[in-house]
Every structure is written in C-alpha cells, then in structure tokens.
Amino acid sequence: MKKVQPQLSGKTAVYAVLGDPVEHSLSPVFQNEAFRAAGIDACYVPMRVAAKDLSAAITGLSHTSLKGFNATVPLKEALVPLCTKLTDEARLIGAVNTVELDGGKIVGHNTDGRGFLESLKEETKFQPRGKKACVVGSGGAARAIICALTKAGVREIVICNRTPAKGKQLASDLAHKLHGMKLGSSSLRMGELSRAFEGVSLVVQATPVGLEGRGLIPLPWGVIPKGTLVADIVYQPQLTPLLSEAKRRGLPTLGGVGMLVHQGALSFEIWTGKKPDLKRMRQVVEHALANS
Ligand code: NAP
Q: What is the reported pTM?
C-alpha cells in the first residue's frame, strides 16, 4: 500500500491528536489518508502532551494556526473545563475527543458514542430500540456509548464494572441526566453478573481488557440469550479474546475498528464540513493493524 506523504507547504492546514502515550495512535494513518482522498491540503500529526501540561498546551495551541485536534487517553475528561464552548453531547458525556480551534475559540465535541452507533448500524442488523444492554466498564468510552445507546432508544442498561462503586456512581449520575432510561449497575462477580445479564440483547466491552490479545472478562455465558450481539471496542487485535469466545459460542460479534474509523470520520466532518472516504480510512487502518 502507498505510504502517505502529504506535500506540505505554508498553506497546509494542520490538525493533531494529543495523548500520552500517543505513539500507538492510528488516527494519523487514517486522517491523513482521508485528507489525501478528499484532495484537501492538510496534514494530521501526533503530539505527546502529559496530563499535567494540558492546560498550558491548549492555551498555546489556541494561539497558533492549528485548526483542530483529537484527544485520547488520558486527556478527554480534563479537556472539558478548558473548552470555551461544548456541544450538548460532550457536556453530557463529560469528555471531549474532538476540538475545533477557531480564532481563539476552543469548541469541544465528542464523537465516540456516535462512532459506535454508526459502526453498529453499518456492520450489524442490531436494532437498539426497546432492547437491554450490558456495558462492561465505566470510563469515558463506556459513558459515551451509554449516552448514544440511550439516544438510539435502548430501554435498559446495566453498567458492569471492576470497581463497583464507580459503576454505581456513573449509573446514578446518568440516571439524572438520561430521563426515562432504566440504569443499573453490577460488579464483575459471577453471581451478580448472571442477574445483570438476564434478558440482555447487546453486550459492549468498553475496558482495555483484551488489548494485544491479553485478558478476558469472564461473562455469564450460560444466561446470555442466543442471538445476543457481543461488541468489543478494543481493536488491537481485531479478533479479541472476547470476540473469539463469543464466536465460538455462535453469537454475533462487532469489533472496535468500525467505531475507531467512524469517530474519526465524524471529527473530519466537523473540521472540514465534508464526508470522508470511509472505505479508504478503514482499509489503511486494517493494513496498519495487520502490519503492527
Ligand atoms: P478509561 O476511561 O481509562 O476506562 C477504563 C475502564 O476500564 C474502567 O471502567 C476500568 O475499571 C476498566 N478496567 C481497566 N482495566 C480493567 C481490568 N483489568 N479489568 C476490568 N476492568 C478494567 O478508558 P476509556 O477511554 O473508557 O477506554 C477504554 C478502552 O476502550 C481502551 O482500551 C480504549 O483504547 C478503547 N477505546 C476504543 C475506541 C474505539 O474507537 N474503538 C474509542 C475509545 C476507547 P475501574 O473503574 O475498576 O478502574
């Protein structure tokens, strides 16, 4: 596959991804390809920013010609108070993954939840309306997905978390904000999980467990109904231990690459007003994953 080599000039628009670490990020791979495919004179670069330096970095960057950036772990939540404006979605989620910089304005968006929904729509037959979902994890990604599933009409969500107090806190926090949603929480202990998973139609794994093929959250497979969709937002490897186990049990699965590409495509649209070439974006991500 051709390597991305943008022709840079003084007119080239610059975008970035901020994180710590950031070296592993695939965003430069697919955003540069999206700019190239759209014929836009722009480039996208990784920038390592430590959490303690975020405020100084944002002040500095907002005084440059940088057009916008994505944020990854551990900066998404810390960005919220640093933005001059937040979308309703970013405020509700309490995390920002996409920023538009415009004449000193720092506008915070969150595209993670919609990215997950777009991937669900594109790659599965799952219809969220009226269904019950169990989300494993209570971090920024879980929060974004819970908000998106609520918007898509899911009836009930149980947050299953290693630290039960954090899951319970998130459920009670969101119950106030997501009117009408039935929200519960559970620890990862098997007895409690078995009760939480009764009648589930969608399972979303939103923790780093399974990254690089390491680790598997034990699920109460015996109570998970036939046909339940098992989604894992970890995308390295594409077939995580959880997805492999779900497939072995004959359950439909959804990997994390689609969410990654769609959340990035939504950022691209926010910055440029144009829809990127999703197919090309996905191709370069899959190529990079296969060669990493
Ligand atoms: P985060 O805010 O750090 O949340 C971490 C969550 O994972 C917490 O609920 C934590 O539980 C749980 N956790 C961590 N290690 C665990 C373990 N060994 N066993 C059980 N639970 C564990 O992270 P995040 O931003 O939500 O991201 C979570 C994962 O999703 C990351 O791997 C990230 O790369 C991936 N992600 C993928 C996409 C995509 O586009 N596909 C987008 C965003 C994120 P405690 O509360 O007990 O600590």
A: 0.96
The answer to whether residue 76 is catalytic is yes
Residue 2 Cα, ligand 1 centroid: separation in angstroms? 33
Asked if the peptide bond before residue 237 counts as cis, ω within 30 degrees of 0, the response is: yes
pLDDT-above-70 percentage for the chain: 98
**Substitution candidate for ligand 1 out of 207, 236, 267 with most atoms within 8 A of CB:** 207
- For 226-264, how does the pLDDT look when each residue is reduced to its tens digit (9 = 90+)? 999 999 999 999 999 999 999 999 999 999 999 999 999
Spatial strand order of the sheet with 229-232 comes to: 182-186, 156-160, 132-136, 202-205, 229-232, 253-254
Ligand 1: centre distance to CA 283 (Å): 25
Residue 1's pLDDT is 52
Give the phi and the psi of residue 197 in degrees, each rounded to 5: -85, 0
Catalytic residue among 11, 52, 67, 76: 76
